[in-house]
């Protein structure tokens, strides 16, 4: 199993540009989580989906952030327009919706907005 | 407002000795607790978990202790090995099941000296 795959690994962009982060879930997993890691706040949950349906997006900081699951195995997190304070490492994680399986994280996307 | 607190940002121990990593939580609704380990440039990986109906769970060199009355848990690693050097995150969930919405602490950096 290839694990959770995130792309790109690094993204450097200028303020105001649109940024799209991508995530491929582990085959068979049906829960998808987007986390953001910063020095100040640690790992914060942004949004999570069960069976492609967004369950809790209360962690999404602003309307500039949006996440989608166009199919059961893929998700995107979009920031438009990006700002320097969005600079962080963004992690995607997936799991089985069985109540016992732990989250499997991807290796993250390091975003730098200048 | 941090609901899961890892107050010590770092810990250094000698190889072969015990490492004790502490975690406190404030939300009395939390009933499932996990530890994740993270190496640089990788995503967190699941290490061990404990349900609130237990006060101890052991897996090889790793043992997690839960003190519900004190809202405190700890991870013991014995004997510690250089390969254990990583950032350790404590996480908690307010619903039964490991894949529910997890709240993470900021992490503790463990260094095991050869």
Explained architecture:
The complex is a heterodimer of chains A (114) and B (114). In chain A, strands 2, 4, 5, 6, 9, 10 and 11 form a seven-stranded mixed beta sheet that branches. In chain A, strands 1-3-8-7 form a four-stranded antiparallel beta sheet, with no helix packed on it. Chain A starts with a strand and ends with a strand. Chain A is mainly β. Chain A is globular. Chain A has strands at 5-7, 10-13, 19-24, 31-38, 42-50, 53-56, 65-71, 74-79, 88-95, 104-105, 109-113. Helices cover 0% and strands 54% of the residues of chain A. Chain B is mainly beta and 114 residues long. In chain B, strands 2, 4, 5, 9, 10 and 11 form a six-stranded mixed beta sheet that branches. In chain B, strand 7 (62-67) and strand 8 form a beta hairpin. Chain B starts with a strand and ends with a strand. The interface between A and B is medium-sized, with 27 and 23 residues.
Helix content class of chain A: under 10%
Which stretches of chain A of 5+ consecutive residues score pLDDT under 50?
none
Helix/strand order of chain B:
EEEEEEEEEEE
Span of the ends, CA to CA of chain B: 37 Å
Poorly predicted sequence stretches spanning 5 or more consecutive residues of chain B = none
SS class of chain B: mainly beta
| DSSP summary: helix tally of chain B | 0
Strands of chain B, count: 11
Biggest sheet descriptor of chain A: 7 strands, mixed
Shape summary of chain A:
globular
Q: Can you count the helices of chain A?
A: 0
């Amino acid at each position: 199993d290839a694990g959770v795959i995130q792309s790109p690994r690094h993204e450097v962009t200028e303020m105001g540009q649109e940024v799209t982060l991508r995530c491929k879930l582990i085959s068979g997993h049906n829960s998808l989580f987007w986390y953001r890691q910063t020095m100040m706040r640690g790992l914060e949950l942004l949004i999570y989906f069960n069976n492609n349906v967004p369950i809790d997006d209360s962690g999404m900081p602003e309307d500039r952030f949006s996440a989608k699951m166009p199919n059961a195995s893929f998700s995107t997190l979009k920031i438009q327009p990006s700002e320097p304070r969005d600079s962080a490492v963004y992690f995607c994680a997936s799991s089985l919706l069985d109540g016992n399986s732990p989250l499997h994280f991807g290796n993250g996307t390091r975003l730098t907005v200048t | 407002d941090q609901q899961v607190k890892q107050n010590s940002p770092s810990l250094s121990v000698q190889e072969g000795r015990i490492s004790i990593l502490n975690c406190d939580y404030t939300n009395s609704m939390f009933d499932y607790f996990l530890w994740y380990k993270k190496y640089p440039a990788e995503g967190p990986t699941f290490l061990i978990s404990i349900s609130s109906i237990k006060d101890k769970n052991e897996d090889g060199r790793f043992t997690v202790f839960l003190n519900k009355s004190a809202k405190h848990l700890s991870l013991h690693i014995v004997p510690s090995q250089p390969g254990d050097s990583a950032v350790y995150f404590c996480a908690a969930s307010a619903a039964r099941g490991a894949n529910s919405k997890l709240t993470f602490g900021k992490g503790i950096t463990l260094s095991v000296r050869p």
